[in-house]
Every structure is written in C-alpha cells, then in structure tokens.
Amino acid sequence: MCKWVGHEFATQDCPNACSAPASTANRAVYRRSEDRLRRMVGRRESRHPRSRRRASRAANIYAHIAFPQTAMKPGLPAKPYPRWSRLCKKFAAAFPPERHAGMGLVVAVSGGADSVALLRLLVDIWTAGPSTHRRSISVAHFNHATRGTESDGDQRFVAKLAEDLGIEFNTRSAEDWVADRACLVADSPASGSPAIGFPTSEEQFRRQRYRFLRECVASRGARYLLTAHTADDQVETLLHHLLRGTGPAGLCGIPARRPLGEDFLLVRPLLEFRRQALRDGLEEIGQAWREDSSNDELVYQRNWIRGELLPLIRDRYPLADDAILRLVDTQSRWQQALREQAQQWFDAHVRILPPGVHVRRGPVAPAVLGLAIGMIWDRLEWPRQRLAKFHHQLLWQLVCSPSADVAPDRNREANRAPVATDLPGGIRARVLADEVRIEPTRRNGPEEI
User: Fold this and answer.
1) Quick one: pLDDT band at residue 35, thresholds 50, 70, 90?
2) Contact by Cβ (8 Å): 143, 151
3) CA-CA distance, 137 to 167, in Å (whole number)?
4) Residues 310 and 402 in one domain
C-alpha cells in the first residue's frame, strides 16, 4: 500500500503501486486525478450507464493509490484537513489579521489543547499574509511549578512549539517570580510588608499569572494579550458565578475583550469555539498538546463543575450548554446598553485624582451607579472581589442623599461630622459638601501574591 511521507510517495508491499514523481508538476497531476476521481465516484445521482462505467473504471485504476496529505506547515491547510480548515475560516472572521497585525500580540500558551489551538490558528492564518505578521506574535508561558517535572515538561513543550513555528518565546517560573518579589519586599522601606509565598487558591494563581502576562505585553510594546477561553469555559464560568452568588454583570460571563490597564487589551478570540472541536482539529493536523493532571482534582471549584456538575446537567438537559450561551449573549447586550449610560454618568460626575476619586453627588439609578463604581475600582486597580451588594447600597445612599442627615453613617459624631463608611480593601468613602471622596485609608505596600 502507498503512504505519504513528507513530500514523496513511498510504496510498501504493493506490486501494482506506481511511484509518484516528486516534482511540483507531477504532484499537481496526481492532485487533479484525485479530484477527478472524487467527482466521478460521487455522481450517484447520474443514472447514465456510461457515467457509471467511467466511475467504476476510475475507481479500479486509482484504487491502489493513496493520495498525499498536505504537509503540516504554518499556513492555510488544504482540502485533506476539512475540520481545521473550518476552524481557520471561523478564526479569521473572529480575529482578522488586517485589523490587529500592526500592534503586536502576546499569546498566553499553557500547553493545553485550547491554547495550542489558539497559537496554531493564529500562526496558520497570519502566515498567509505579509511576513511582518509573524514577527508581531510572541508566546508567553508561566510555569506555576505546582506539578514538579510535569510543569517543567509543559514549559519545554511550549518552548519547542514556539521554536518550531518561529515565534518569540517568553517564560518565567513561579520559583523565580517569588524570589524576585521577595527581594523587592526586602529592599522596600515600607514596614509590615506581607509575606511572599506560593499561591494557595485559584484566584491567587490567576493573579500571579496575569501579572507576568502584563509584564510581557509591556516589555514587548504589544497592544493585545490573547487567551484561549472557549465556549465551554463560558458555560463553566456562568455556573460558577451563579453558585457563588452574582449580579447582572456576572450573568454576562467572560467578556470577549476588556482593558488590561490603560494601554493594553485582553482579547479572547475562541469564545465561540467549542473545546471538542478544537481538539478534533488538532488531532486532524497531527498537533500534540499537554494534559494538565490537576484538572482532574475536584478540590478546585471549576474542576468540580466541569467533571461532576455539568455531566449531570447535560444528562437531564442535553441542550443546556446552548441555553446558557444564549443567556450570556442576551445579558451581555443588555449590560452593554446599561454600560453606555454608566459611562456617560461617569464622564460627567467622576474625577480621578490619585490616590482616590471625587464623585459629584446627585440622583442616579442604582444600576448605573453600580457599573460606575466598577469602572472606578478598575481604573484605580482596587480589588473588588469582596465589594458586595451592601456596599453598593451604601455608596448609592452617599451619592444620592440630598443631605448628610439622610445618609447612613456608622461613625457620625455629635458635632455632625461628614458622613463616612469603610469599604473592603482599606477604602473609605466620605461626604464632603457636594461630593463623595473615595480613597484608600493607607498607602498599599507591595502587592501580595
């Protein structure tokens, strides 16, 4: 039987096999013959005896030939890879190179199937364009060093993949990261600095990783950071938000784009792709990936949702994923309209004066103020994980109350001191005349990991 090896035919134990020439012209002849054979054999609707005889004769002539598969190279795949071709077309529509190529990209690659597919899709699509597109791509991998040799293997795998694709590679280990930050804390004159150590929760792992990714984007002068979140991650995120408690913003799931500081943009171009479709595409082109054994540890909430809860839901509601994704899309549209109103109110009433902010008092809808508060916290990079609905209500009363007498004040003195309330993260809000000032009560030392 014939098999394709590189760009040549190799025959094994096939006396009738023809040796295919290696020239470009002869390979084109074989390709045209293959296309002709497929057209002739596929004409089942034709009942003319001559057509059936031609198809049968062609099938007998070419039965011993295994037509070549396109070699796995960066660039748009040919017909033998139908699944990967569909993924490439969909990705090109979601993230067209002509809009993003001139500003620089950093791709976060863990070595898993999703991130490997993101990198391969990006390179295959962009290689079809100008050569400068490839030079604008950079790979970033953060080694959390939580799985010993397995974590090191992930790092080596991503480094080799980037080398094979001709892409710049950036990496850092959590051990080096912790050591560097410990030196910074030791050299800092601030007293009472927090201890530096390894993360102990999913959120701390995430914060550590994104600090490194932001450093990569800044050091390279790039504009975009790409991550490989998929539609399956969207479903898991919404369920996670519902179970822990969330508001309208949490029902929007993972945004496709969001600012990463003032100069960078975080982009998730795979949010409309299903995880299994990406894996099928990688298998089709022969691209390997790494499996993270910690994904099977149900102690992590996301792993429990993925491995235990979602299978039960899908058994009872087979279309649950589609229903959840429709909810995310609808809620995102509503939230976007509300966000535009909040942005208008923010521009008219808020002045950012580091280290705090001044908010002009006046009537405002609670939903609009809630989004504006999120904008304030994000702009000043204050943590808002512990900012609950109760705190939003307090801030709304401070901003909207006609006088200090109406606003809640747990610290009011007998001489009618300005209204003030404490917020999570060492933040304090107080009423002064016609504005509310929100600022940290102490200068924050080095960030905790």
Assistant:
1) low
2) yes
3) 6
4) no
- The DSSP line for 62-111 is STT--PPPPP--SS---TT-HHHHHHHHHHHHHS-HHHHGGG-EEEE--S
Q: Rounded distance, CA 2 to CA 14, Å?
A: 7
Q: Are residues 203 and 309 in the same domain?
A: yes
Element (H, E) at 425: none
Closest CA to 95 of 124, 75, 74, 73: 124
Residues 86 and 45 in one domain: no
Does residue 229 form part of some domain? yes
Separation of alpha carbons 17 and 13, rounded Å: 9
Q: Say if residue 441's pLDDT is above 80.
A: yes
377-422 tens-digit pLDDT: 988 888 887 888 889 999 998 998 765 444 444 544 444 444 888 8
Tokens of 18: 């023809």
Domain check: are 146 and 215 in the same one? yes
The amino acid that residue 4 corresponds to is W
Provide the β-strand partners of residue 431: 436
Kindly give the interhelix angle for 366-379 and 389-400, rounded to the nearest 10 degrees.
100
Residue whose entry in the numeric block shows the structure tokens 């504006």: 372
